[in-house]
Amino acid sequence: MLLPETERALLHRLATAQRDGRAPSVAGAVVRGGERAWSQGIEATPDTQFRIGSLTKTFVAVLVMRLRDEGRLRLDDLLETHLADPPVHGVTIAQLLSHTAGLASESPPPWWERTPGELRPELADIVDPAPRHSAGRRFHYSNPGFGLLGAVVEELRGRPWPEALQGEILDPLEMRRTSFLPQEPYARGFAVHPWADAVMPEAVHQTGRMAPAGQLWSTVEDLCRFANLLTGEADGVISADTVAEMREPRSAPETDSWESAYGLGVQLLRKPERMLVGHTGSMPGFLCALWVSVDDDAGAVVMANTTSGLAVGALAADLVGIVTEREPRMPEPWRPVADVDAALLELTGPWYWGPTGYALRLEAGRQFQLCALTGNGSRDARFRPADDGTWIGLNGYFAGETLRPVRDAAARLTHLDIGSFVFTREPYDPDAPIPGGVDPDGWR
Q1: pTM as predicted
Q2: Positive or negative: CA dihedral 257, 289, 293, 43
């Protein structure tokens, strides 16, 4: 539960956004510690369905990553590996997931969001075969790319992707109010006149082959359950390691200082205070945003039934900020490890890469953390144990590299090898195999 003053601040922010954005209705929710901590609706309830637009893509991405984890596909597989005679060739699954395949942003006209899906019955009908960019060169958001990914899921599962979604994600997460078609009570979509307080109903079309790009309907309460998946707390659906992989930026930023990026089916928003992961969404008459801050163990969902005018992404980010700033996450209490392994303790303490000092600390779960003793910690990293007596880097410069303790013929620990970098107990230890050797006259 949240403090009453925090709940009031959240409601005030939601109400202000609804008024200033002139949205017929809006609903919002906050998830904290794996549980829905607050939800509220204005001219709606937390159980009102809204169309979630492009947040659908993240659900499809989870289905694709589950296939990868099962060994049914590889991220570097070409699309034609899994689809017979696809409308485009030479693009990979990873490029489609990360919008780096160079495909057009939209399907050929008429605009798919405002016309029936029956106008585009085949995959060839949703993709302009002329690329906009070379595959893999840059980020270019592509709705048809996710239509192709939905077809991959159907081909490998042997059933429609909404059925796979129901059995693999919605049922395990108990998302009973998330559906392919709207279910009462659900919000009707509206366009709001730009210069008058007047509204016009937006037509709702089923999107056919483009459905994986923006078809789904859901509620803020259901999406709180999905938010937990994005923080890595849904092992029954997808592993935490796979979710962490999805959250990694996959395309180079267009500026040196990036504020937003894209992973594998998820958007990334870098704020000064925190990194947010999730997705925004829009369809005619609807807006949606879901953000989670993994470090703060907090997330927020916002949904509205207006075509434009309400900055739902900023609103959801503000709800996360209100909670984390007013009620910071309590740190986990420090506890000593249950069993001390003398062989691991031997690895701890100061080590030197050339003249630069580092400390290796043993953490819970037999993990190690390498930190610079002074100055720039450009080689700082955390390492997890592997099955062969080594450790694998989790972040920073040594991400994916191997930390290997090296012993001499007498079983004496001589040095650490981390991706060919030699770390010794003394700076340039002459008894260790320092690359390039050590001056025989030593320090002087």
Answers
A1: 0.89
A2: positive
